[in-house]
Specification:
Elements lengths: L1 H13 L4 H15 L5 H12 L6 H15 L1 H13 L5 H17 L2 H18 L4 H7 L1
């Protein structure tokens, strides 16, 4: 049974289906074909996986990043780091990392850092002539 489901997964991936669909179809077939599988246990585990208090913090971290953007704090953080590291070769990449460390210390989440400083950092690095792959990789 496991070999058949694994082969089905690879066939669906080879056909170009999204990964979620390619994983979901064999999983659903397993649930239907296994009489010992209790349906309510699967539902209970899915709900328990997303029913945590830590997930409540994510929207508030993003809100904090937007407030810091509108208040100009993110621009000040980036500019102050740029003053210290701007003349070093590849300095803007260093500025990107240092500003992200400072902002992550203030907000507490990588999601807020990406939302808050990401747009400023990407814009500045593109203006300085950095390659898009380098810009996205460092940010």
């Amino acid at each position: 049974m496991i070999i058949v489901m694994t082969l089905l997964l690879f066939v669906l991936l080879a056909l170009g289906l999204p990964v979620a669909v390619a994983v979901g179809i064999p999983s659903f077939m397993y649930v239907l074909n296994n009489p010992g599988f209790v349906n309510f246990v699967a539902i209970q585990r899915m709900i328990a996986g997303i029913n945590t208090y830590s997930l409540l913090a994510v929207p508030f971290f993003i809100l904090a990043a937007n407030l810091m953007n509108s208040g100009g704090i993110t621009t000040r953080i980036f500019d102050s780091c740029r003053i210290g590291m701007g003349r070093v070769k590849g300095g803007l990449a260093y500025v990107n990392i240092i500003a992200s460390v400072i902002f992550a210390g203030m907000s507490g989440a990588a999601i807020a850092d990406a939302g808050g400083l990401g747009s400023i950092e990407i814009k500045a690095m593109r203006e300085a002539g950095y390659d898009d792959r380098m810009t996205i990789g460092v940010t």
